[in-house]
Design brief:
This protein is an all-alpha fold. The protein has two domains: about 50 residues, Homeodomain-like (Arc Repressor Mutant, subunit A); about 150 residues, Tetracycline Repressor, domain 2 (Orthogonal Bundle). The longest helix is centred in the middle third of the chain and has 29 residues. Keywords: DNA-binding. Pfam families: TetR_C_39, TetR_N. This is TetR/AcrR family transcriptional regulator. It comes from Paenibacillus oenotherae.
Length: about 210
């Protein structure tokens, strides 16, 4: 059969897609570089042209996911027309929505494999580090506007993101739908206390899509 030549970006994405699929099927630890190249049908030298190791592939997959997550978050956080309170409502609705966009669940499905806990945690740690400065800027805006009352916006942002991502992640805590729903109902009062806001500003009905 004739050799199929692909442009570098296309080949790189193929390696990432294949590795991600194998991580979901076999788990990260059980997937070898030889498994990835065999699945694609290329030599190991092709793999090492793009990546130094399987660990570097995992980091690249996580970076790709972070870019996907960061884009809509950045648009909201950087919106010059909204108050900080309005931004927080939108951000919370985005996170709590059961419909986060086409392909969202599929893109993160591999993280739910029992042998991929370290990858999952790595994604959350990098997400917190990437998102916290943006969220801290929203908090600082809220303080200036008089709606929030906090003294260390970055620390609060890191605490908020870490707790939010771990606590509501059913893949970590194995919440049932009912258990997760109960916790979502508590989010409003927790956010109000954390940001020093008036009670009721983030009541559950205000965070549901279509409510104000």
């Amino acid at each position: 059969m004739p050799r199929i030549t692909k442009n570098p970006q296309e080949r790189r994405e193929e390696i990432l897609d294949t590795a991600q699929a194998l991580f979901g099927q076999k788990g990260y630890q059980q997937t070898a570089v030889s498994d990835i190249v065999k699945q694609i049908g290329v030599a190991q030298g092709t793999f090492y042209y793009y990546f130094k190791s399987k660990e570097e592939v995992a980091d690249a997959i996580i970076a790709r996911h972070l870019a996907h997550m960061l884009e809509p978050f950045s648009k909201v956080a950087g919106n010059g027309q909204w108050t900080a309170y309005e931004k927080m409502k939108v951000l919370l609705r985005m996170e709590l929505s059961e419909d986060k966009g086409e392909g969202h669940e599929d893109a993160f499905q591999y993280l739910h494999h029992e042998n991929n806990a370290l990858l999952h945690q790595n994604l959350i740690v990098k997400m917190v580090r990437s998102f916290a400065p943006l969220l801290a800027a929203v908090f600082e805006q809220g303080v200036r506007e008089g709606d929030f009352n906090i003294k260390e916006p970055l620390a609060v942002a890191e605490f908020f993101l870490t707790g939010f991502q771990f606590w509501l992640d059913s893949a970590i805590f194995h919440w049932t739908d009912a258990e997760r729903r109960e916790r979502v109902q508590s989010i409003g009062s927790i956010v109000e206390a954390l940001l020093g806001m008036e009670p009721g500003m983030f009541s559950a009905n205000r965070l549901l899509p279509g409510e104000h």
